[in-house]
Structures are given as structure tokens and as C-alpha cells.
Design brief:
Glutaredoxin; mainly alpha; two-stranded antiparallel ribbon; 7 helices
């Protein structure tokens, strides 16, 4: 989904993308989520997030750190921040939100205007969407 989302953002400068790290695929999923959230503390969340999602390599601790290094991150600070309570609390809050919304997998996509107040004003898709379907949902958002 990462290349599709980047394309949508380039085509729609008024669209705001909110990403939530929901590590449900095991230990490496959690490790990668911690790295992305720690990268935020260095101002490189989006870069790290998309680099992780578009990596051609299997994610291992070494490959995640290599990706971080390629993004210009301070690795010592990243590793320290990965274990911080700030990062842990963010993952817990996202897990709580996913449980509340009954999200069982990723990706989970919500599309609506920022002032939407009714569930019928928000499109929810559990799973992958085509770029065209995302664009249509944005265009038709009420």
C-alpha cells in the first residue's frame, strides 16, 4: 500500500494521511513499529515508515537498522528511543484503538473529511485498496 498512498498524497495536496503502527505480525513487526516511532523523535517518521514498508528485504533487526542508517538516523538514539515509554505507550494506544474499532488486520483504511461526525461519512476498508478506489473514496467523501 505504501506506493499507492504516496501516489495519492502527491495527487491530492489537501489530503492528510494519518498512520498508526499496529504491529500484529509478530516480533519483527513490533521491532519495526518501534523503530518507525523512534524515528519520529528525530523528525523522520514518514521516511522510516515508507522505507520499512517498501523494503525488498525481509525485516530483521539488522535490516531495520540498515534502513534507519540509510534514512540518516542516529542509530544509538534510535535504539534508546525504541525502548522508551513514549514509544511503548503509543503502540499500546494504537492497539487499544484497534480493539475498540474491532480492527483485526492491516491495512485498515478510513477515508473521510476531517470534520466527519457520522459513521456513514467515513469509508472503512479492511485490506488493500487500489489507487483508483482510494481516489474515488476521497473524491466522494461527504
Amino acid at each position: 500500500m505504501a506506493p499507492k498512498l504516496e501516489s495519492i498524497l502527491k495527487s491530492n495536496p489537501n489530503v492528510k494521511l494519518v498512520l498508526k503502527d499496529y504491529p500484529i505480525r509478530g516480533e519483527m513487526s513490533l521491532y519495526a513499529a518501534q523503530a518507525a516511532l523512534a524515528a519520529k523523535m528525530q523528525g523522520k517518521y514518514k521516511e522510516m515508515y515508507f522505507a520499512l514498508l517498501t523494503s525488498d528485504n525481509d525485516l530483521t533487526k539488522d535490516s531495520v537498522m540498515a534502513i534507519a542508517k540509510n534514512q540518516g538516523l542516529n542509530i544509538a538514539k534510535l535504539k534508546k528511543d525504541m525502548d522508551s515509554t513514549t514509544v511503548q505507550k503509543q503502540i499500546e494506544r494504537t492497539s487499544d484503538l484497534a480493539a475498540f474499532l474491532e480492527i483485526l488486520g492491516t491495512p485498515a483504511i478510513f477515508i473521510g473529511k476531517s470534520d466527519a461526525t457520522q459513521p456513514k461519512q467515513i469509508v472503512y476498508v479492511a485490506g488493500e485498496m487500489s489507487t483508483k478506489d482510494i481516489q474515488d473514496a476521497i473524491t466522494n467523501a461527504k
